[in-house]
Specification:
The protein is mainly α. It contains 4 helices and 2 strands; from the N terminus they run ββαααα. Strands 1-2 form a two-stranded antiparallel ribbon. α1 packs across α3. The protein starts with a strand and ends in an 11-residue tail after the last helix. The structure holds zinc ion (ZN). Zinc ion binds next to loops.
Length: 122
């Protein structure tokens, strides 16, 4: 899904599905990353500090460290999460689900000189 240096490939090398749809599509992955960072890590950290299990100073230090490192580590998974959520909500955007009228499928048929694209490995 990714080229070296965490650059997202524009298309799936197996089925040519467009991953980067342009026009701010990356914002969905950013929202997934932010949501997991804040609600999955920062909120529990704040609750630990509020309950007195860790001092506020430790919570702030851990929060700053996690806030800087975790989004970078989670970047690839945030794209997977975003694409899964996107295609779960809009399954007809997948060429295989859209029937013969999907523009991506027409482009693939033209590229393959009239043959529909192969799905999976035969
Ligand atoms: Zn694929």
């Amino acid at each position: 899904m990714f080229a070296p240096r965490m650059r997202l490939l524009a298309r799936c090398p197996e089925c040519s599905l467009r991953w980067d749809r342009g026009n701010g599509f990356f914002l969905g992955a950013m929202v997934c990353n932010y949501t997991v960072t804040v609600f999955g890590l920062m909120l529990p950290l704040a609750l630990l500090a509020l309950c007195g299990w860790i001092t506020p100073r430790v919570a702030i230090g851990l929060g700053a460290g996690i806030g800087l490192v975790f989004p970078v580590i989670f970047y690839k998974w945030s794209w997977s999460l975003w694409l899964a959520a996107y295609y779960a909500v809009l399954p007809n955007e997948l060429p295989a689900n859209a029937g013969q009228d999907h523009p991506l499928l027409h482009r693939e048929i033209q590229k393959n000189q009239g043959e529909p694209p192969k799905r999976g490995r035969d």
